[in-house]
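Limitations
The structure tokens in this dataset are predictions for the assembled complex, not deposited experimental models. Users should treat interface geometry with appropriate caution, especially where small molecules or nucleic acid strands are included. An illustrative entry is reproduced here so readers can see what is and is not provided.
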Amino acid sequence: MFDKMLPYLLSGISVGGQYALIAVGYTMVYGILRLINFAHGDIFTAAGFFMVYIAASLPVQAAIPLVVVLTVALGYLVERVAYKPLRTAPRMSVMISAIGVSYLLQNLMWYVTGGLAKQYPTIPFISNSITIGTATTKVVTLVTPLLTILLVIALVTVIQKTKIGMAMRAVSKDFETAQLMGIKINSVISTTFIIGSLLASIGSVLYFSNYTSVTPTVGAMPGLKAFVAAVFGGIGSIPGAVIGAFIIGICENIIKALGYTTFSDAFTFALLIVILLFKPTGLFGEKTSEKV
Amino acid sequence: MIMLKVTDLKVNYGGIEALKGISFDVRQGQIVSLIGANGAGKSTTLRAISGLVNPSSGSINFMGRDITSFNSQKIVAEGVALVPEGRRVFSNLTVKENLKIGAYLRKDKDEIEEGIKDIYRRFPRLREREWQLAGTLSGGEQQMLAVGRAMMAKPKLLMMDEPSLGLAPLVVKDIFSIIRDLKSEGITILLIEQNANAALRCADFGFVMETGRITITGSGPELLVNKAVKDAYLGSN
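Predicted assembly:
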């Protein structure tokens, strides 16, 4: 039984890590702006295409940092162009702007690729096969959870221990008072988008190395699932998003192992409905400790 | 010396004129109290000086510089700090982090540590709770923290919006004795209060605001015996 489950478990942990890297971007932006950044999944997809086009003319090792830089630039640009001008607008306007950006990016990708699936390059080392016990898998399956956990620990350390991290926590609580401290709200928000896009770009390299090709809508599903993970963990909470992502990744694959592959996506979204009904604040949702 | 000079300041909130052209000065080293009923425009005045709302006309001059169009961040850097209404401590940050963030624009690391120690000397309760989240403090402790946080910016002018609101009488007494201490250390204070009695007792100068205008001005002792002020804000005896 265990022998049969092992490859699924491994793949669940790996996919979970990839979801986690996307989910952190959702949850951080929500934590600061109270905005569901619908464009985040498309930024993840765009990172996939950046790799396709850059790897066409550069070795993959050199392409990866370039992909990260371009994705970060895209995330930053989206915030500056589509969200920053709406800083004082009602939250609904910003959300609609986010949906707009999402469609814009998707359509741009359709336009550029002509709607054809583009072959994703083979990433050296992490695409190699490896045998663990009875399971044969790619190195990426092992690299993903380790890298994810390292990155998340680094991120949490930044948020807890550094000055910019303290500013982020302050801004997430109270914009106006943060301004009174002399904090530049806009640079804190930019930093948040930069971190989110950075993690999404790394997640994208890990995720697509499991697939042969990229299409403009391929990021929608992992994006949505990462969003569910963020809600499941308690939106706004980074550890929550990560744990939620791992749980979803693992559950999906266990369901596949049991032979119900058709239902693995349905499970995730059923989970979303159940959480929203019974525990809308998620696993680690904001507790309210303030005295009024 | 005049530290803050507000001239014909007007502020509109979506068509409603919250400030209808007010002018007043704050002299260096003084405590100036703004008193008045709810909705008179007291908070709006402080918010405009802090750069949180944009005046529609008029000017704000601080230490000889026109700061009317400055954003909050620049105004803090000029040396104006606000203790906001309702304290607004960062409940998700520890007490110590709240103090540190008050010094966000300062670069002098060693002096910041000294500053924190100084705040702890003033408010020993905060030292005891150094590592607690600010949201777990009592109302009075939060007010001390909010004052401490503002002082961490090393302000030349400290503005306080209703520091005694919602606090127990004994704690209110503490707060006003802190305000007097700060004055004796040379910090200029612009104070808003509904507790007109206490506010005028410690004030060198006072203004009474009514529906967006300053209607009565005078020294603290003068206002305390002014008949109109007595009738409207101090109670009959």
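Some entries come with short summary sentences. For this one: The mean pLDDT of chain B is 93.
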